[in-house]
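Contributing new complexes? Match this layout with iron/sulfur cluster.
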Amino acid sequence: MDKDLKEKTLDELEQIVVGLGQKKYLAGYVFGFIHTKGISEISQITPLSKTLREQLAKDGYFISQLKVISKLADPDGTVKYLFELPDGNRIETVLLFDDDRRTLCVSTQVGCAMNCAFCATAKVRLQRNLTAAEIVDQVNTVVRDASCVARANYAIRNTHDAGRITNVVYMGMGEPLQNYDAVVKSVRILNDPAGKNIGMRHITISTCGIVLAIKKLADEDIHPRLAISLNAPTDALRAKFMPINSKYSIAELIEAAKFYRLKAKQRVTFEYVMIKGVNDTVLHAQVLARLVRGTRCRVNPPHAWRINLIEFNPYPGCEFVASGRERIERFKEILEEAGIKTTVRFKMGQSINAACGQLGAGWGGKDEGRGTRDEGRDCEK
Ligand code: SF4
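Output block (do not edit by hand):
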């Protein structure tokens, strides 16, 4: 991927162009044409001289492109894309609509090694990390696909800007911080004003809790929002369905979250998947409220933290059951009474296995994972 121009930041493109004896500003055309016009051939970057375009191609440079295998739409408006990578592996990407927000949930790995018990992706064993280009191209391809989204989406009234992506969340297949370098590079590319220009407050990296990587991210010069998949208020319970907890305790995770908040001055949210009879009782809510309130200090008052309660999304073969609205609302009340800002995320895209924790549902791994068994509506039809 060393020669993939989609993989390059603007700085890296400038070095390439200058290395070929050309003016630095020409790199802006390469970056802009790739990330705003969605071109896939070097010959299409027409502001460059024919000689320079030929030189780039002769030196082996190219522009990679994800292949769309299928697009499925849920009646709630959610659209799920199945992409094929150059090596035949496949990933899923989900477009969600919520008021004025068009949020794209991108994947960062083929499969995942973290083995969270409630997550369908964990059943697809880790094949490999995605490149920065493969992460960025999920956004570029969906934006290009605006007309399909507009046709497919029942929720959109004004279809002329249906493909505009307002938010990107790194919550698809894989653990983003296990693919640290490519993820950070992809954030730089998506954030660049010469390209997609997606602001840091509109980019969220979600992690199951890789403490060292959270601290490393805090030390970067870019700071997206952070979402931490907590899901239990005690170590004993969390370790039962999140193996990462045996490496990093909740106390270490909270310390890392505080460090990120202090250093990055960026929002940190705790995600809490609500599973019936497992982590959703009144006692669990009270312990969670105490835990979050216990993090308070001068710069981290309890209201600085947010909790997202996520309705559990069952997938074929899973042993867990969703909590149901009544229990979720009661849980929320307890947290809010403790002064903690709490949001409930109810299921979206469930009929096409596009909801949180459902990506890869029905796959059996690389060889078996050449398609999905989803029943949603094909956007092309
Ligand atoms: S929840 Fe995230 S980290 Fe855990 S197995 Fe699923 S994709 Fe991996």
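Reviewers usually confirm one structural detail per submission. For this one: Residues 112, 114-116, 119, 121-122, 173-175, 208, 229 surround iron/sulfur cluster (CB under 6 Å).
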